[in-house]
Automatic annotation (TrEMBL):
Signal peptide: 1-20
Protein's UniProt keywords contain Signal: yes
Similarity comment text for this entry: Belongs to the COBRA family.
Localization in the cell: Cell membrane
UniProt KW keywords: Glycoprotein, GPI-anchor, Lipoprotein, Membrane, Signal
Name of the protein in its database record: COBRA-like protein
Domain of life (superkingdom): Eukaryota
């Protein structure tokens, strides 16, 4: 029966992943808003904004790369706050006093880097394409740039809305542009100008589209049993299979340069699970009314520092989280009836960056939870998480048969007299 339940649960999870729907963040999307600001005789001024409307999935370096397809022979004359990767073939403008910024029919635009000269900036630009999740920093979930668009045939002032938008991020697909109520826009928050036309493009994420294999796995341990439920073998890949590269101690490493525009594919330490990220959940201690969990996130990837990482955990006791060390926390699903799920992330300048393995990369937290009466139990793996995701991607859990179990004799003792454990740990503390 339990097996069946778990099977159904994972089936539901996979189905929801396939369609990109996540009950924890049902409205999750990235919206691209395209504002036609004004039109002169031969050119249009356009403002493009990219909003990350996702609770716990952020956009990390190397960042978004916004692409679209022009309907006619439009060219981008100038741009502020972003730039096209390629200028393209502008030879048609030979002899013109100024060459356009980009003549590609399918331009790809990237954000500028922090520290860009002021005259090339635009408000909310220049973050290297990074977008924060809404929970982590609701002031940094927006990127914007402005451009001046013209058409090659200089008698056509009619610039059409382009189509076929892409974000250049794995796993995201964008719908067609939809014309919406024009918005007023402002560069500085003081003066507001009318917009001629506004279009929205909605882009959705799907883990299956992003990567066929998972990117993280979970291992479990407890103070009451020395068994460790390890990350399942081949969670993210198998050693020895074709295409599976990994690094053994002493191997020479070829690390990519700093300013790559593509994210390097993971180069992991050789492990049984071959995942770039491992999460360890340790049930550490039991007090009279509380219990303590330690969570460790380890980076096994040599080629990536995970900045602004997030961890989403589902556990029925999270609603009684009493004390948390070294991480930030925010409960999720307040819009629905979910109250057992929350999001953890690092503290700025302290552990918001999960360094690559080469730098001994891991981050840790401990949390104290209240033993809710009639619900709490050490039996049947209740103290272990139901689901964990890292940076918005679901992690592989061990099989429930492998969970460390309460020793049979100790069932009653541990359940009814946890104060013994407190007593011993106090003794240990005193001995230190
Ligand atoms: C995109 O997210 C915003 C903000 O959460 C939401 O209002 C909007 O309905 C979402 N769009 C879609 C198509 O889900
Ligand atoms: C269009 O996107 C903006 C955010 O850029 C959002 O506020 C607005 O609700 C969206 N409109 C529709 C109809 O989805
Ligand atoms: C650039 O476009 C012109 C026509 O506009 C064409 O004659 C020329 O071959 C193109 N050059 C390249 C390198 O594609
Ligand atoms: C643009 O207009 C000028 C003068 O009106 C004309 O000489 C030129 O051929 C036009 N260019 C194109 C590409 O149509
Ligand atoms: C430009 O104007 C000429 C003459 O009015 C017309 O034949 C041509 O189709 C126009 N080009 C475009 C792209 O609208
Ligand atoms: C561009 O989008 C249109 C409709 O949105 C679609 O029919 C077409 O196949 C797309 N083209 C490409 C190259 O993706
Ligand atoms: C990760 O960060 C460390 C310390 O800032 C740096 O030395 C290292 O080169 C970075 N590694 C990668 C892969 O970016
Ligand atoms: C959490 O949800 C469960 C089931 O929906 C409910 O029984 C419980 O009372 C809720 N707890 C809180 C603190 O809202
Ligand atoms: C510890 O847990 C394992 C796995 O569930 C179980 O096989 C074993 O019997 C437990 N150890 C003790 C001492 O109960």
């Amino acid at each position: 029966m339990k097996k069946l339940l778990i099977f159904t649960f994972s089936l539901i999870t996979s189905l929801s992943l396939a369609s990109g729907f996540d009950p924890l963040d049902p409205y999750a999307n990235i919206t691209v808003t395209w504002d036609f600001l004004q039109q002169s005789e031969s050119t249009s001024d356009v403002k493009v904004s990219i909003y990350n409307f996702q609770q716990f999935r952020h956009v990390d370096r190397p960042g978004w790369k916004l692409g679209w397809r022009w309907q006619g022979d439009e060219v981008i004359w100038n741009m502020w706050g972003a730039e096209a990767i390629y200028q393209g073939n502008c030879s048609r403008f030979k002899g013109a006093p100024e060459r356009p910024h980009c003549c590609e029919m399918e331009p790809v635009i990237i954000d500028l880097l922090p520290g860009t000269p002021f005259n090339k900036q635009f408000s909310n630009c220049c973050k290297g394409g990074e977008l924060s999740s809404m929970v982590q920093d609701s002031s940094k979930f927006l990127s914007a740039f402005r451009m001046n668009v013209g058409a090659f045939s200089n008698n056509s002032t009619n610039i059409n809305m382009p189509d076929n938008f892409t974000l250049g991020l794995p796993g995201y697909t964008c719908g067609p542009p939809v014309q919406v109520q024009p918005t007023k826009t402002s560069q500085d928050g003081r003066r507001w100008t009318e917009t001629l036309e506004t279009w929205n493009v909605t882009c959705m994420y799907s883990q299956f589209r992003a990567s066929p294999s998972p990117k993280c796995c979970v291992s479990l341990s407890s103070f009451y049993n020395s068994t460790i439920a390890k990350c399942p073998r081949c969670s993210c890949g198998c050693q020895g299979l074709p295409g599976a590269k990994c690094v053994k101690p002493g191997d020479e490493l070829q690390l990519p340069g700093e300013r790559e525009t593509e994210e390097p594919s993971p180069l992991v330490t050789c492990t049984r699970h071959m995942c770039p990220i491992g999460i360890h959940w340790h049930v550490k201690e039991s007090y009279k009314e509380y219990w303590r969990v330690k969570i460790t996130i380890t980076n096994y990837n040599f080629v990536k520092n995970y900045s602004d990482w997030t961890l989403v955990v589902q556990h029925p006791n999270l609603q009684s989280l009493t004390q948390l060390f070294s991480f930030n926390y925010h409960p999720l699903g307040q819009f629905g009836n979910i109250n057992d799920t929350g999001m953890f992330w690092g503290i700025k300048y302290y552990n918001d960056m999960l360094l690559s393995t080469g730098k001994n990369g891991n981050v840790q937290t401990e949390m104290v939870l209240h033993k809710d009466e009639g619900v709490f139990t050490f039996r049947e793996g209740w103290t272990f998480p139901r689901r964990i995701s890292f940076n918005g991607d679901e992690c592989v859990m061990p099989s429930p048969d492998e969970y460390p179990r309460l020793p049979n004799r100790a069932h009653r003792a541990a359940a009814s007299r946890p104060s013994i454990v407190v007593f011993t740990s106090l003794l240990i503390l005193a001995a230190l």
